[in-house]
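Q: What would this chain look like folded?
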Amino acid sequence: MSHEKSVNYVVMMTLYDVTALDVKSTSTYPSDNIKGRSAILNCAWTTSGSEEAGVLNIKKNETNYFTCTVYKTNSYSCVKNVPTSPDRFTTVNGVGNISMTIGTLECLDEATYACQVILFYPSGQFQQADTVLRIKIPPSVPALSIDQTEVIENSNINVSCTATLGYPNVGQIVWKTYQNGILFTPSPSDIIISSTNVVQPGDDICTVRNRSSVLLKTSRNNPNISLACFVINQDFPAPSDDACTNPTAQWCNLTATVNIVYPVSNIQSTIVPSTALYEGDDIFLRCSVEANPLPTFTWTKVDDYRTLTSEMDGLVSVLRLTNLNVSTDPGDYNCTASNVVKGVRYTASRVITLIINKATTPVPTTTNTQNRTVTSAKTTPRTEITTPGLNIEVADTNPDKVTIIAMGVILSAIIVIQFVVILILIRRSQGDCPCTRKLAERKPHIYDQPERPTQYEYINDSNYKSVEL
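A: My prediction, written as structure tokens:
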């Protein structure tokens, strides 16, 4: 919106019936007279018969600014009657008219102007026409004052906006709030707006200057806040826009983005994947926090005071452990996050405990000594991964393959025992056989030993052992 075009205010004044003297008064261009521009007041008259115009006076609120001699001449001469009048007041002569130009309009130029024509003949008769010159003053581009652009959460942002509101119609200051550049409305309980009229040196009597202040409570949930104040005046409509993109045309101003800072908090840790851990596995330890400014992360192995290298992405740090070793990798891992807020360092930490199992496959092993059979299988202990606030328990492992092998071993043992018992019974039933003596004469055989029963004690569902009674 440009306000640089020249503005002319023309007043045509008519001197009415003195005898046949005729003066007309009209306003031609324009109807608005903006402070800082110019206006033209025009006096025009006509005479007839024996009438002769002698003097023309141009007055402002009854003060005679110019006296012009117009008797029997087309080259009128005008004299300034007000010594303090600057060159802003000038006259231009024409045939039957005189115009006065007021340059660089000021608030004090608002007045009633009169064009008075005094007749030379008949002597002493006069007529005048009046016009009122109104001055309009646009709002000013607001000036903003903000106490700080970095605040701790839950504290207040204090912003002041000062502007002239326009004249003769007085406008008002309106506030708008943005988050990440997008218009949003804060909760009424979080914002307080107050305003008062103020006076500054240099203000004229037409100026209405207002100061409006905002107190806005901050929250980490509403980061990157900015505020804008707009002056709204119906005489000077601005482009309709929620954003302050053109301060001069929109009579607005926008603060810088306010950075809301807060210490590290709400630290969380997880293990990926969250299953039982075995030697040779690859895992990630993940640590996250809430903080502004961004924190720094440190990972340490608590057992041996080792500092470990991790990857950081904003508010998250990831520690990668590959090819887990059952001897060196189990234990406590500490994640520490820290940041500095207003010169004070804050820290938060979280511990993850790793329990790592051997990665051996439970395969049964059988050892035979004479008729003693011992069958064993390795059991897998329960694994619990402990993290403060995060407990992950993994159930026992029962592979189907181990169960099938165990059942096969049991059946084989039963068949062998049955075969031995049957063989002994057959030999005993043949005691009168000639072979009886030979059996007595030969050396004792392993099969001649008395039957020794074997019981099986089952352990869990899939692991077992056999013991000799």
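Helices lie at 247-250, 400-429, 434-441.
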